[in-house]
Structure formats: structure tokens, C-alpha cells
Amino acid sequence: MPEYPRQIHLGVFVLGTGNHIAGWRYPGAAQSFEDLSVVQEIARIAERGKFDLIFLGDNLASEPGMHPSFAARFEPLTMLAALAATTTHVGLGATASTTYAEPYNVARMFASLDHLSGGRAAWNAVTSSGGKAAENFGRIHPEHDARYEVAEEFVDVVRGLWDCWDDGAVVRNHATGQYIDPAKVRPLNHEGRFFKVKGPLPTSRTPQGQPIILQAGSSEPGLNLAARTADVVFAVVQDLEEAKQGYVALKSRMPRFGREPWEIAVLPGVMPVVGRTEAEARATLNTLQSFVNPANARAMLSSRMGMDVAGLPLDELVPKDFPLPDTSHGFAKAMLAKAWRERMTWRDMLNLAGAARGHWVICGTPVQIADTLQEWFEAHACDGFNILPPYFPGGFDDFVDLVVPILQERGLYRADYTGTTLREHLGLERPRSRLFHD
Ligand SMILES: Cc1cc2nc3c(=O)[nH]c(=O)nc-3n(C[C@H](O)[C@H](O)[C@H](O)COP(=O)(O)O)c2cc1C
Predict the structure, then answer these.
(1) Ligand 1 test: best mutation among 10, 54, 127, most atoms within 8 Å of CB?
(2) Buried b vs exposed e over 86-114: b needs ≥16 C-beta within 10 Å?
(3) Which of 28, 175, 182, 253 has a 20 to 30 A CA-CA distance from 83?
(4) Domains of the chain and CATH, by start
């Protein structure tokens, strides 16, 4: 069980050019997601703010129309390996696709990162919502629910491979010359509907036992996969009541899989636009919005809605019968519900997609932002937040230097790290190998 009172967990969504589509155009903002020094600075700020984790997404395709950081970026595991060397505490999370990767490779990469970082690795298991990746792998993009069927088995294979080594398998006995205790390493011998994987990995049991599993789907099959296997879930939210319902929808299905609700930390994405005054914050957001390239906003909204929105009547209300796309249910559900609630037009939707890509935006003074985060946390709408600074490094500095201290003073958030692994930050136990101990 976690120690009470509950504490807020914080992650940061890293996109070098900022989470706002036009963040890079803000005065003083970082210009590139292909610049190690930019990402290293973001990681330094995250550790100054005692963040649980930094998170790097990935799409397996260059998407220059949507967002500059989706056009040109490093392969995320490679970047995290570099960051492992310059950070000491913050968790290092990255996306790998269950539709386009192989479980053996994914298990090996994250096991390696867990060793390299001393127990800070986290895998964001995504099914790849957009079909663009298919063109790079000579494949046909499977439909939504079929992707999740593969994902269920994929995650089991990865976790099984992480369990092939028991603790204490590397004995290094100088007297006998024995390096490995063969009784503590087993093959997985997995033969399933989609994968056939013998194992073991050439990587011993990792510092966390199992690297942390992140997930971000909120469709029915997405919630089921998360309830069974995730440690952290990124939610898409736009409204407190809806967030509370989504939180219950996920946590209430965990007992079906023999898990306790506290074993998942739900972190909704939020873009905080911080100002010394409310007017200053509003002016910053207005400046950022004025920089949005309309073509980028259209491409982003098309991706979120799963169809080309170019021909839609900009000044008409978003219709009530607009269908959920086959791409990602999470974004579309939250954005459409907001549009219907607030009687938004398609032009308003373009503004929403252009700001935080469909995520929630809060704009205000440090106290106003801290109050809102506290309200959501105490209302059990979430267990913390995935912070999406609009631009780096200034937009992240503002949150860490102005909002985090208020959360700390209120006893809602750690004043310092009490452990060194991501599992410890999350209050999760280090699991024993199920292959050896179940
Ligand atoms: C915070 C956040 C980060 C995500 N990162 C990625 C990513 O890096 N790559 C990706 O293909 N999908 C990413 N997604 C999409 C989801 O993981 C998921 O595949 C998609 O939303 C479809 O799931 P659903 O229909 O169950 O909601 C992300 C979603 C959220 C909310």
C-alpha cells in the first residue's frame, strides 16, 4: 500500500520545440528536438522539480504537417540512453509500438535502459493510432480493436522476457569460475496467437525487476489493457466530471485482473500557461495562438478526428453525431465532448488542436494553477499530471519554479526524492519474477 496522505505524481511530456504547435516561435524558446543540449536542460529542470518522469513519444513516421517535433526528432530510446548518463533520479519513459515493433527487441531495449539508468526505465506501450507507420514497414495498418488484441499478447511476452532472469543469477564466483547460476535463468517458450518467442533475453534481471509500463489509450480495449498491465496511464481530459468518470472507469476494472486501484497512477495531460498575473498568462497564450500556422492546426485536428477536416464549415457547430475515429478514441472523445458542452465551432476546434494538440490548457497565476491541480487531485480525478509546457525551457521553468513550490508547501508533492528508481517514486513494489516465484 502507498504511504498516506496521497501525493501528486508529475511527468513532463518532452517535445523539444514545445508542446504548443507554435511553441518554438515564442521569444527565447528552444528551436529543435534534435538538440541533445535542449533535452538535457529539460531533464535538469525536471530533476530540480523532483519530477517522477520525463516522457518521449514516438510515431514511426515523419509528420511535418502537424508539429515541428513530429517532423524531426531522435529515436527515443537512443535519446534516453544519452539522458541516463546525465541524470540521477528522474524516470525515463519512451514509446514503443505494439503494432510495429517486436516484443523481443522492446523487452531488450527497456531492460538495457533500466540497467543503464539504475532503475528508471518506462515503456509507453502504444498500438500506434495513425496509419502512416504502416507505409514504413510494408504493412497494412490493422483496425483499432485488432491492434489491441495484438497488444495484449505483446505486453505479456515483454513482461515474460523480463521475468526470465531471477534475482541473483549473476554469481561471478571467482573460486569456481561460475559466472551465471543456470538454475536462475529460464527460457520463456512463448507460443501464442501472434508471437513465438523462446527467450531468455541476453540481459539480466533489471534494477526495477520490471521496467514501468505506461499507457495512454482510453477506448474500451485500451482501458482493459491498462487495467491489467499498466503502472501509469496518461489520460486526455477537458472537464473535471468527465475526468472523475474516466478515473473510476479505469480503476474499477482493476480488481477483475487481481489488482488494487492504487497500483496505477493516472496522469492527465495539462498545458500550464503561467503568468505573474492572470492577464499576463492570458497574453502569453494569445501570443502563442497568434503564431499557429493554420495548416498545422488543420493537420493536427484531422489526426485527432481521424479524417481530413479541410472541407468542414469553420463557423458551424461541431455536430452531435460526429463519429469516433478508428485512430484514437481518447483525444476524439475528450475534444468532442468539450465541443458539445461549450457549443464550439470547427474554428474553435482548430484553436484547441493548435494549442495543446487536444489536451487540457490552464492559464493563470501560479496560485490559480496550483489550486486547480489540487482540486482535481483531491476530487480523485487523477493521481498527478503529465505536464505539457507550451515551450522549453522557459515554459517549464515557470511551472517548476512558480507552481511546484506551492504544491510542496501544501504538502501535496514531494520536497525531495526519497528513492532513486521510478518504481520508488511511484510507491510501487519491486516485483519478483513470476516465472520463478509464482
Ligand atoms: C499523453 C499521450 C501520449 C501518447 N503518446 C503516443 C505516442 O508516443 N505514440 C503513439 O503512437 N500514440 C501515442 N498516444 C496515443 C495512445 O497511446 C493510443 O494509442 C491512442 O490514443 C489510441 O488509443 P485509444 O483509442 O484506446 O484511446 C499517446 C496518447 C496520449 C494521451
Answers:
(1) 127
(2) ebebbbbbbbbbbbbbebbebbbbbbbbb
(3) 28
(4) 9-268+361-433 (3.20.20.30)
